[in-house]
Amino acid sequence: MAPTSEGVAKATVCVTIDNEREIAAVNAWFNRWGPRIRCGDNQGCGCCVDIWDVEAPPEALRDLPAAMVSVTTG
C-alpha cells in the first residue's frame, strides 16, 4: 500500500452495484473500519458503480477483496 505521512494508505474503492458480494463486503468494511477511514464523496454514477477515494490503514484496505481496491501512488 502507499503509506501517507499519517501512516495510512490512499486508495480508490470501486463497487459494482449489481454485485451482491461486493455490496456486502463494502458495507461490512465501512461498518468495521469507518471511524479509521477518511472517505471522499462517491464519484461513481450510483446506478452501476460506487467509487470512493479513501485514506485508511493498510490493514483495512487488505480486508477488502483485491479486485475492489486500487492503491493510489504519489
Automatic annotation (TrEMBL):
Superkingdom of source: Bacteria
Record protein name field: Uncharacterized protein
Origin organism lineage: Bacteria, Pseudomonadati, Pseudomonadota, Betaproteobacteria, Burkholderiales
